[in-house]
Design goal:
Chain lengths: 156, 201
Amino acid sequence: MAVMNKKGKKELPAISTSSLPDVIYMILFFFMVSTTMRDQELLVRYKLPEATEVQKLEKKSLVSYIHIGQPSLSMQAKFGTAPRIQLNDSYKTTKDILDFVAAERDQLSEADRALMTVCLKADGMTKMGIVTDVKQELRRANALKINYAAAKSLGY
Amino acid sequence: MASNKRKVPEVNSSSQADIAFSLLIFFLVATTMNTDTGLARMLPPMPPENQQQEDIKVKERNLFLVLISGNGAIMAGTPNNQEIIDLRQLTEKAKEFVLNPYNDENLPEMKEEEFDLPDGSKWVYPVSQGVISLQTTRDTGYQAYIQVQNELTRAFNEIRDAVAETKFGAKFADLPEEQRAIVTKAVPLKISEAEPRNIKK
């Protein structure tokens, strides 16, 4: 009998997959913790300028974004390639910033309003003219805490 | 009795992995991982519109002008002594201006101020009265502007690091919150961002 068994059972036993869900759950939890929800679709293209002394932007709930750059490829047929300002989900002009800041501020609680930060995400090739217009408008809207978004680089 | 003996069949868990996979893929698609980084600044408040705009008088020795031209060239210096410099020289020039190490008459005044340390003692530090004024034209590229802002931030960060090292014996970033606030007051980030000059072509 013993000889027969050796000859008959040469196959390897199947690898147990019962712990596969646990592994996948672990990866899942990792992603749930370390990522943030994608909140808006970008209508402009930008490559952020690079800087070395950048700081992390804290408390995402207090941050509002203003995107400045060329319209994205699919929109260029309609809107051309001149730099545009994107607020929320559409192209806007500098005149709309006042309303935008007011709306964003309304969403925050009373205590957090002073801490509201506006993050300027502008393409490196943008001219300062449009950026300055936005800044003047932010001053008028009394949103004085700003952040120039820049990618971390290692220097020269 | 007979019904008690019947075993409840085990739930088939072979599709659990598939469920977990689909959840995983959902999170992979719907979230982003990049953290936002940037240079933090405070804008000056807008003066009331009906009020006559008075220029705040700053002594000439307390002013350091940095001009960025349309093609990215940088001119920097005190109002009477400006020169065209390279981006890499800017940090050193800004540091020299803010610290005024040799008590030069053409570089900013120092005003001794007293700070209350967390342990109750007092600390007197000469706070520089220098203001760095950053001006651009409307044609200046944003990249050049950010690079200059970055160099100026680096100058202030290096000064803060040096002050923190001599006073508290640690780097600025490693200090506890209260000490960091004191160093920030001792070395304030004074960068004024004026409106761009309209240069007609």
